[in-house]
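queue> holo job accepted (cytidine-5'-triphosphate)
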Amino acid sequence: MARLLLGVSGGIAAYKALETARLAVKAGHAVRVIQTPTSERFVGAASFQALTGAPVLTSEFEPDPARGSYPGEPPPARAPISHLALVARAELYLIAPASANTLAKLAHGHADNLLSSAALAAPCPVAVAPAMNNRMYAHPATQANLELLAARGVTVIRPDDGELASHDEYGIGRLSSPAALLAACESLLSADLAGAEGVAPRGPLSGVRVLVSAGGTREPIDSVRFIGNRSSGRMGFALATEAVRRGAEVTVVAANVGLDSPAGLSRLDVNTAAELEAVCARELEASDVVLMTAAVADFRPARPVEHKLKKDSGAPATLELEPTADILAGLTARRRPGQVIVGFAAEHGAGTLEHGRDKLARKALDAIVVNDISRPGVGFEAAENAVTILTADGVRRDVQRTSKRLIAHAVLDEVQRLRAIGESPTPTTNGPHGGAARAGARSAARV
Ligand code: CTP
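queue> job finished
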């Protein structure tokens, strides 16, 4: 069940947005609605309010009575500073119907109403469902706008072919049915693009090969016992899911992950640090991006026993350990130009960022995603996280506590920025590590 933000723009098909909202609520989603002023000429806010059980927003200047909360959540004690709190918390922003005018505004970054401002500020996946007259839909301007949006990772839910609103007019331009819109949203939320009728599985990472390591390694003591860690693999799987959604070819190396695989990727299972190292080394050459979320044991028993140690034989006096290889440092040492390699560091308490910066430099990474696991409710085994992304070209980006899905979104945005810098023809400092990061194209706050 997800927080779904529905943006409704002007057009006769706005009546189908009511049914879409109704079906989404019935399916258990928490739905909030933003309407453009024109859409209110077709359907009234009162209908959406009744169906969603929440106020409808139309203007940047009206405070949200629900203070950015979704149905089923308590409103925060203080009103959020921004009118964009609603989109900041959405897990998916569906704009349906998306009129030709709204698509043009979205494609060119206009922010002249709440719907378009929210689209610019959306940290979550955005989907648009065009609906208009067939000649307007076929016009090269509309098609170019849709191309532009799709290339930026916006999912386009194609309109249907058939009878149009004007008498005796037929063609492509009918808004997809409410059931199909909901199915597309649910597929997007689970990244099962293959299952969504009419959804184009294209995105900004089309053709990019992404290697993700997930979970935690286990180092055997004997044939049944091991030294392990608490990593569940959720962060790695969230990243893999989001990379698939953006069109990437994804391989996940899963170290002891008990989760079902997200759809649309290859999964290779491993147990120990040595196995993880061997698979990552083999896959490196064929990868454009490496996201190393796995928690790797730094030490392993030097002489694991092949059978089961028996209690009757007495406890061993000592357990001799030997260091494992630093897999990530090994990968960056053998990288080829243009590869983006990202590390993850779970640190405890004071000095979190300093340790992160140290690892960024020591392991010659393009970026490191650092989190403080001493904070309650985030990190290992939790559904949420709060991280700081540090990059070799000096950017620091803080992502406040949120779902691992939205953390994955922020990390992949940063990967895309680093790839874009790596591909740019401008002379480069190549960052401190000769990686993809270059000076001169910085978009976020400096460290
Ligand atoms: N890592 C690795 N191989 C190891 C240890 C860590 O590839 N033997 C990777 C992790 O997957 C992660 C990054 O390095 O992406 C940082 O992991 P962390 O355990 O924080 O780094 P360590 O070098 O082990 O530092 P620490 O001294 O804090 O344990």
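queue> The mean pLDDT is 88.
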